Amino acid sequence: MMPASKRPLSPHLLIYKPQLTSVLSIVHRGTGVALAGGLLLVVYWLMALATGPDAFGNAQRIMGSWIGNVILFGFTFALFYHLCNGIRHLFWDAGLGLDLKTVYASGWSVLAASIVLSFVTWFVALV
Q: 65: buried, middle or exposed (CB in 10 Å: 19+, 13-18, 0-12)?
């Protein structure tokens, strides 16, 4: 049996305390994956539309159910979050807003804007 190594462990998520910047980075990647999955729903809906009234009625019934609405709201949030955070990254690419205070302010702004835009979109769509 080999003796335990005295080398330090590489840092990982269980060692680091979650910070706003790391959480928003992980959420950005997650919303990218969610958008890819949501596009499959859009393709399903368009295929149902092209197939005929029965298939389209089934798709509308699924999308109009409570679980369908939750998924669509999540897709809406993912779309707005990914958009707003992408704009934030464009500013960073230009060398703007890289100081810690601005990074945190823009991170909270991205989160707030995503929530507000999602609710406004759904409010306008339902009225």
A: exposed
In this prediction, residue 118 carries a pLDDT of 98
Domain topology for 21-126? 3 helical TM bundles of succinate and fumarate reductases (1.20.1300)
Q: What is the DSSP letter of 38?
A: H
Mean pLDDT (10-residue bins), the chain, 127 residues: 70 81 95 96 96 97 96 97 98 97 98 98 95
The pLDDT score that the predictor gives to residue 1 is: 60
Task: Give dist(CA 123, CA 127) in Å, integer.
Answer: 6
Question: 47 — phi, psi (to 5°)?
Answer: -65, -40
Domains in the chain: boundaries: 21-126
Helix 66-93 vs helix 100-126: angle between axes, to the nearest 10 degrees?
A: 150
